[in-house]
């Protein structure tokens, strides 16, 4: 696909009846089980781990993997439908589920058979929770800048350093940890970083402070500290020194899941505004009768549809494995910003109830700030889009 000259086939979205049947299963779970506890999760800032286990039993952690590794051989579209339906009620809950894929997907793409059996299979079956540990106090977007070190000592590596903002870091049984095994190569800063699997309870692995953020309450990230943490050599995932490639490939595949969270949140704000404006009367008229409210709701509906179409399109391309990087970045920007703008419009429509912290809309606005930030900020997505356009035009490598 070229930016300047494209085929209409590049825009196909492959949704089947199986997808819709699957969506109904997830929606049923979300409406019956998640919706009643979503506000409590946010207010108490604690995840409902019993419900997370139920999501595992439903197969929501293993969607794209083959059955031999505990999955259900679904596709990326099934994955985004799940993320969207869960985020419609609780983006925090969808984040707890989604963070597992930041470990299971790279294990599936880069892991050997033994690693897939040992680590991927229990994650996919929902028996073990996982956390992806890249970000550090001194670096986030610039993953090549990490300083956590892994020193070879016989058949094992000794890891020292600190990670920040790690989702599921306090709940995980398994961690994918990125550390420097060597210095950056001349002209290739991203070389010299390696991905390791680390098991909970490994001596030297400490869960540090919880970091309170504006949104996704109930799923607050934590610090991780590694003090002479020994990891066997066989736990290296992918090639030695090529961990940045492992991580960036993971983010390329995972970004569309964040777009789906944005779509779910944008949809929730639209529903809240519609419900409120058909029930609340001012000066003897329902709010929905005012054109000023109708225009806002029409714009919100347009934003949801745009987000959803871009997200399903990016998921279709991700599954095909073609030209999906730019599509996913576009979808992430559009959907996460739709969540923010729909929450703001819903707040205006709902007056004092819109800004009340007992109402879902205020939570949607807070959650939208976080999803704009993680898995690559939206400005980093803009850089990615420009890089991909440059490649298409043959002007940059
Ligand atoms: C709730 C939450 C959960 C998270 N979960 C995880 C997790 O599970 N695992 C993990 O490893 N990390 C996680 N993160 C970290 C997250 O991925 C990073 O916060 C994110 O990548 C941004 O990094 P940073 O915060 O260090 O910002 P920085 O990289 O310091 O960027 C700061 C600002 O500068 C901008 N910027 C940076 N470089 C450029 C550039 N070249 N051009 C233009 N603008 C630029 C950014 O867009 C941003 O606005 C999480 C973060 C949050 C908030």
Pattern of helices and strands: HHHHHEEEEEEEEHEEHHHH
Integer average pLDDT:
96
Low-confidence segments, given as residue ranges, are: none
Number of domains: 3
Structural category is: alpha+beta
| Number of alpha- plus pi-helical segments | 10
What proportion of the residues form beta strands (DSSP E)?
Answer: 5-15%
The molecules bound to the chains, other than polymers, are: flavin-adenine dinucleotide
Number of strands: 10
Report how far the terminal alpha carbons are from each other. Answer: 16 Å
Order of strands in the sheet with the most strands? 1-4-5-8
Residue share in helices?
40-55%
Q: CATH top level of the largest domain?
A: Mainly Alpha
CATH 2nd-level architecture of the largest domain: Up-down Bundle
Specify the biggest β-sheet.
Answer: 4 strands, mixed
Q: What is the overall silhouette?
A: globular
State the CATH topology of the largest domain: Butyryl-CoA Dehydrogenase, subunit A, domain 3
In CATH terms, the superfamily of the largest domain is: Butyryl-CoA Dehydrogenase, subunit A, domain 3
Report the radius of gyration as a whole number of Å. Answer: 21 Å
Can you describe this structure?
- The protein has 397 residues and is α+β, with helices and mostly antiparallel strands.
- The protein is built from ten helices and ten strands.
- A four-stranded mixed beta sheet has the order 1-4-5-8. A four-stranded antiparallel beta sheet has the order 2-3-7-6, with no helix packed on it. It has a two-stranded antiparallel sheet with strand order 9-10.
- It is globular and about 80 Å long.
- It starts with 16 loop residues before the first helix and ends with a helix.
- The mean pLDDT is 96.
- It binds flavin-adenine dinucleotide.
- Flavin-adenine dinucleotide (FAD) binds next to strand 1, strand 3 and helix 10.
């Amino acid at each position: 696909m070229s930016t300047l000259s494209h085929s209409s086939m590049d825009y196909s979205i492959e949704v089947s009846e199986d997808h819709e049947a699957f969506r109904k299963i997830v929606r049923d779970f979300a409406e019956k089980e998640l919706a009643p506890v979503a506000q409590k999760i946010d207010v108490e800032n604690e995840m409902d781990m019993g419900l997370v286990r139920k999501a595992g039993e439903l197969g929501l952690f293993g969607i794209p993997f083959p059955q031999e590794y505990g999955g259900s051989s679904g596709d990326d579209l099934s994955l985004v439908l799940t993320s969207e339906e869960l985020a419609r009620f609780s983006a925090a809950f969808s984040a707890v589920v989604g963070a597992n894929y930041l470990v299971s997907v790279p294990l599936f793409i880069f892991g050997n058979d033994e690693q897939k059996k040992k680590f991927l299979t229990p994650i996919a079956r929902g028996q073990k929770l996982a956390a992806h540990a890249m970000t550090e106090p001194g670096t986030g977007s610039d993953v090549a800048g990490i300083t956590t070190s892994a020193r070879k000592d016989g058949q094992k590596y000794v890891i020292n350093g600190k990670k920040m903002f790690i989702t599921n870091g306090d709940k995980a049984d398994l961690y994918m940890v990125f550390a420097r095994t060597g210095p950056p190569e001349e002209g290739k800063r991203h070389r010299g970083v390696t991905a390791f699997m680390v098991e909970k309870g490994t001596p030297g692995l400490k869960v540090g402070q919880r970091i309170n953020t504006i949104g996704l309450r109930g799923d607050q990230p934590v610090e991780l500290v590694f003090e002479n943490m020994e990891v066997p050599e066989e736990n290296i995932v992918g090639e030695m020194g090529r961990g940045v490639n492992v991580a960036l490939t993971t983010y390329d595949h995972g970004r569309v899941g964040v777009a789906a969270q944005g779509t779910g949140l944008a949809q929730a704000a639209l529903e809240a505004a519609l419900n409120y404006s058909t029930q609340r009367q001012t000066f003897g008229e329902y709010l929905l009768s005012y054109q000023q409210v109708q225009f806002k709701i029409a714009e919100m509906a347009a934003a949801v549809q745009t987000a959803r179409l871009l997200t399903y399109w990016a998921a279709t391309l991700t599954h095909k494995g073609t030209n999906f990087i730019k599509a996913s970045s576009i979808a992430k920007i559009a959907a996460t910003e739709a969540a923010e703008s729909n929450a703001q419009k819903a707040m205006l429509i709902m007056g004092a109830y819109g800004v009340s912290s007992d109402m879902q809309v205020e939570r949607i606005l807070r959650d939208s700030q976080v999803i704009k930030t993680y898995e690559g900020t939206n400005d980093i997505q803009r850089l990615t889009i420009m890089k991909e356009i440059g490649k298409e035009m043959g002007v940059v490598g």
